[in-house]
Amino acid sequence: MTATVPSKPAGPDEAVFRHELYPYRGEAQFLSGTLDFIHEALEADEAVVVAVPADKTSLLRGELADEPAVTFVDTTTAGANPGRHIAAWSAWMNERGAAGRTVRGIGETAWREARDTAHLSELRYHEWLLNRAFARSSTRSMLCPYDAADEDEDALRLISRCHPHIRHDGQYAPNEGYLTGEEYAFDALTAPCDPFQELSYAHGDLAAIRSKVSQCASDAGVSPDRLPKLAVAVTEIATNSIRHGGGGGTLRTWARDETFLCEFRDSGYIPDVLAGRSRPEADQIGGRGLWLAHQLCDLVEIRSARELGTTIRLHMDARRRR
Questions:
Q1: Residues of the chain with CATH 3.30.565.10
Q2: In this structure, how many other beta carbons lie within 10 angstroms of the beta carbon of residue 89?
Q3: pLDDT by 10-residue block (mean), the chain, 322 residues
Q4: Which fold has domain 197-317?
Q5: What is the 8-class DSSP label of residue 81?
Q6: Structure letter (DSSP) for residue 268
Q7: pTM confidence score
């Protein structure tokens, strides 16, 4: 299945976002590449937002002292769900570019902390979506350091597909491994684990859906404190499915490796690949369902195609208490 985004060429006065992958090995190479990137920004009177793990933050702070144009942000505030990260980056960048100043970003994704293959797949998809989210913004470029030590070539190749540029020796160049064009080829969804529960739903079945999911989630070990959050997310997704997905669909629930999953399938189509990843405006009517699901669940997987319909999976970690 692929995701397709309409595009248009950049005009002469429109900014073009530069998304760079920076493979490095060891602290010395990390500092060399990121400091080159930061100094380029400072020489151009640009601001920089840095979102990297705590140990890397300490390294950079030691080299930069109290440079006012460089802002370090806490990456844990966005949570582990990659579906929340574009909104977090937008907020960080907009704050630093509020006066019309051009902004750069440095973001190191916690690849090694991915809980499973589904989470890792969504992290890669997030990297691809960054190219769309910041195509027309005050964000000039983003550098994505990637620790290539102890990683195989296949992992680096898959990550490279999401970055149009790659940086080596202080210079960036087009990345030959980039997934060109306007389509993203998703990893196939894993099959539900046996035994799984299945329920067809239509208008008037929201209460039955909530009850079914709540009972199955509780049986799977999801904390009682988290069940209300799951109920809200389930209500939003099921409501969207009934309204926009042909009037109803199929619900499946199961558990895998201490994670509870519920899946909604319908005949609808979601054309906007960024749906649910930007914070809704205060006066916006509708369009909050996917946003809420991303905020309330530990992972959300979306697969949507005109000819196949839409599948949305919500993940809740049974090990978390809140």
A1: 197-317
A2: 23
A3: 44 66 94 96 94 93 91 87 94 84 91 85 94 83 90 84 92 88 84 90 95 96 96 96 94 95 97 92 80 96 95 94 72
A4: Heat Shock Protein 90 (3.30.565)
A5: -
A6: -
A7: 0.90
